[in-house]
Amino acid sequence: MVYVTVMQWDKLLGAIGAFGFWGLFLTLASRSLTPMATQFAYSASNLVMTSIAALTLGMPFAATKVGVGWAVLASFCGIVGGMCTLFALQSSPNPGLVNVVVHACPIVTLALTMAFLNERITFASGAGVLLVISGLVLIAIKN
Description:
This protein has a domain at 6-103. The protein has helices spanning 6-32, 35-57, 65-91, 95-102, 106-116, 123-142. By secondary structure, the chain is mainly α.
């Protein structure tokens, strides 16, 4: 079982903030580009910025065939999810709500890790997941 330590909160808060801005910028991009053009620009800039960060920060680059295979599958799923999100953003009168609902995807990840990786969660974590699902149901009913 993994617990969030004091040392990890800065990273988690950074991720929350960065993904918050990511949702805003992706929404803005989807207003002036087609979903395919947005996906292409996003993917191309991601490759360039990741390469620059790896070189600038001196991060090691070690890969295995299995790891690359999982990364390719993750990329495929990310592209499908990204395209679905972009089409939803393009047609939604409330893009902020689209981003909130799409970012409930960790619930699916949690279920899959429990099923395939034997991950266990505490009662409190399970209750939190149920609250998130309840919130999504309320959002869907209201809209």
